[in-house]
# Entry
Amino acid sequence: MQQPLAITHDQELLDDLLRMAVAAGVELDVARSAAQARPYWNHAPLVIVGGDIAGDLAAAGLPHRDRVLIVTRETADVDTWRTCVALGAQAVWELPEAERILVEELGEAADPPTRAGDVVCVVGGKGGAGATVLAAALAVTASRAGLRTLLIDADPLGGGIDVVLGQEEATGARWPDFVGREGRVGFAALQDALPTFGELTVLSWHRGEPAEIPRQAMRAVLDAGRRGCDLVVVDLPRHLGEGGEEALPRAARTLLVVPAEVRGALAAAQTLAVLRRHTSELYAVLRQGSLDPDVVGASLDIPCAGVLPELSGLTETLDRGDPLPLGRAPLGGFCTTLLRTLMEAR
# Structure
């Protein structure tokens, strides 16, 4: 694969660019003159031109091409912008203000998206509502349907979603390996690091001391999942933290699992008040209880995505380490219908 090209003879600027390339997880080809740049010019996915050499490069008569950026460590003046036009560059970016977006551009150039996955968040309206089971079942159903799926366990106090899958012994990274992550991560690298089962890749928690998910770490994982997957399912805790607050605005839909009972409805209404600060794409998934599910759904004033079937014997199934009862089982049928609805709404 061709690498991004940096053209500059300013060593301090080059050091900055190399540092950002490391943050983006890519390598740079480097040229210090127009002559050195010419063999790479047409083939590099992205060309970054230092302000120190932009004028010389414009005068060299290189053919116009897409994705050329001029980068400077000083305030761009009128001459810099004239050079930008002459060179056919798309923009002039000033460092350090443009560092974050340049890291993203470098990563996109070296690892272009292969998918355009939707994010679906699942939250329990109250403790024990069954949100984790629904998130896991939906992700497994999607992967069995041939959709490349990333399942993210965002609840550090949930005991690990890999247990729900019966895969707690699976080798691979867990959240503690990512909580310090800043910058970009490619999906291929993420998939190689995490437990993967066919089309399903899982980021779960370990059984040690819990930790918060930093905003930057959740952003890096979600971005990788959206570029490389058809569907990203996030199991969120009711107490969101930075990771949840980062995930919710990125979700195409957020499913609130609500038991049809008095405490379930009251707790869900409080949870909704928190969720609405971050997203308006909210849908209820009702569970059978002492109240009429239609009445509970109407009281919450959000659309209903369906009523979960009774899950009798599920706790015993999970305790034995058996797979989730999907396929032709009621839970499998519900997730198949829900998945079809989610995919049609894209």
Q: What stands out?
A: The mean pLDDT is 88.
